[in-house]
Structures are given as structure tokens and as C-alpha cells.
Write a structure and sequence with these properties.
140 residues, mainly alpha, TIM Barrel, 5 helices, 43% helix, globular
């Protein structure tokens, strides 16, 4: 999206609605390096949760934790705040519990400094730059 259509959306005042904003829970930090999914959990087939990508994600999360700490927010809130700080972008953030909804909603009050936005973007690219151009993240 950011390579193909984002500039067009910005120029034409078209809102971008980001899907899977927390990468199926991955950006919450709740899945550690040795996490194994239960049989039938569809996330096991998501490319971000597999092998080298998963290791890169874990390193990226480790690099994001100090930024979240500076703002006194969770990794999920940091991820959502970064996303909605992007031009013309809003977010769908899934939740399984009411408290997760309330926690996610707090992201709208976080005002990330430009240097932090750039640092978060750089950290994210340590993962995304290793993905191919296929927008489908699941291997079925």
C-alpha cells in the first residue's frame, strides 16, 4: 500500500483504513521468541510468525520497548499511535476483551515526536524490508 497507493490517497484526500493493525497480536509483544501456537491457530500460517521473519519481529519489538517506555505506553498503543500518525490513515484494531478495546483507544492521545516516528519506521523496516511483494501474509 505505502509503495503503490499511499501517495495517490494523500493527493486525493482518500482515507486509508489499515487492517490487522496489530499484526494479529504480534505487535502487542505477548508472543515471546519460543511461542508455539495451538493446533488450528491460523497465525501459525502467517509469514510474520514464521522462522526468520519471527526472529526479526522479536528483535524489532525489543527495539520498540524503550520507545514505548519513554511514552509510558504499551507496545500495542505505540504501534497504533504510529499507524494513525501516518497521513490519511486510520486503523482497525481487533480485541477479544473490553479492556483491550479501552487500552487500544488510548493510542489516539499519544503524540509521537517526529524523531520517534522516524525511529519506529526504521525499526519496522528491519522486518518489512525482508518480505516479498506478495500482499497475502498467509500461506495456505
Amino acid at each position: 500500500m505505502e509503495n503503490d497507493a499511499l501517495d495517490y490517497c494523500i493527493e486525493n484526500n482518500i482515507t486509508v483504513l489499515a487492517y490487522s493493525s496489530l499484526a494479529q497480536g504480534l505487535l502487542t509483544g505477548k508472543f515471546g521468541p519460543d511461542h508455539e501456537f495451538a493446533k488450528g491457530d491460523h497465525r501459525a500460517r502467517n509469514r510474520l510468525f514464521q522462522a526468520d521473519n519471527y526472529q526479526r519481529v522479536q528483535q524489532a519489538l525489543d527495539n520498540l520497548r524503550p520507545i514505548a517506555g519513554r511514552y509510558g505506553v504499551s507496545l500495542a498503543q505505540l504501534a497504533l499511535a504510529w499507524l494513525i500518525a501516518q497521513p490519511q490513515t486510520c486503523s482497525i484494531a481487533g480485541a477479544r476483551k473490553a479492556e483491550q478495546v479501552l487500552d487500544n483507544a488510548k493510542a489516539v492521545k499519544i503524540k509521537l515526536l517526529p524523531d520517534d516516528l522516524e525511529e519506529i519506521d526504521r525499526i519496522g523496516r528491519t522486518v518489512s524490508d525482508h518480505l516479498d511483494d506478495n500482499p497475502v501474509m498467509w500461506e495456505f
